[in-house]
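Here is one chain, start to finish.
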Amino acid sequence: MQTLIAAVAQITCKDGDVQSNLNHASELVLQGIKRGAQLILFPEFMSQGYRLTTELWDSAEPFDGPTVSWLREVARNHNIIVGSSFLELRNGNFYNTFVLASPGGKIAGKVYKRQPSMWEAYFFKGERGPQHIDTEIGRIGVGICFDNHTYEIASAISESNIDLMLMPHSYCTPTAGNKMTSEADITRLNTLPCRVARLYNELFGVPVIMCNKSGPWNSPVPNKMLGVPKDFRFSGRSMIIDSDGIIRVELGDEERIAEGQISLAPSKKRQSKVPKYSRYIYPGPFGREIIRLMEWRGRLSYQSSKVRKEKAGVPA
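Its structure:
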């Protein structure tokens, strides 16, 4: 069994301002280092923000762009493991790519988001691939936001025999009820990422690190079949759960970096049967299935978008 101090960096980001977000992330890294952090997880799209319009494509990067260079530098300068996802531009398409850098500045590996959720399907492609990264501390499973909620990803994680699970999120929820969303719905939505983190911990007996963003989210959206988001917030609630199920860190919705000691304990690992409820790993309202229609429309729009092709450098 080995122990390490892991940290979640629950950051508030600026949409489209990659360098500003990386500079701000560096400040949080220094706070974590002072408290002994050996592994720091940042949220999904830490460097790009989360504006779901065609402007998102303007902040995309090649794999060797600013975000991966920053991850390398942080890992090398502070001798830590650090990871986040960014919007990658590759071969005329956009991808949500998580990258993990290890001490010395080496890139340990990458994991793609397989299932762009809801409006995301209008702006980047899903990509299949391994859901784990082998590192000096063991095999690390990675699921990006909505992917973690799906039977497909949980099954892939189960087959990977991981030692640690990372869950970077850009998860936002309404702050006030309306005709379509009750206060009970908001409470349920706010707790979903935590519920999923606990479920992975119970299924696999490994530490789980879930990191979400903080701050307001009021982006336009390309499809209004579920209404227009207004006064949404990134719900935060980042958490670190140890292999024995003890919660070492559980945040509110404020910006903060917090750390906790976890144990990678092979004796506590287990392989439970992954539950299946349609494409999810937990039961929920039937109405959630309509999201598939939005995603289908998003994929068609993405493929045919002339603006996307221009910004991705696809020859006319």
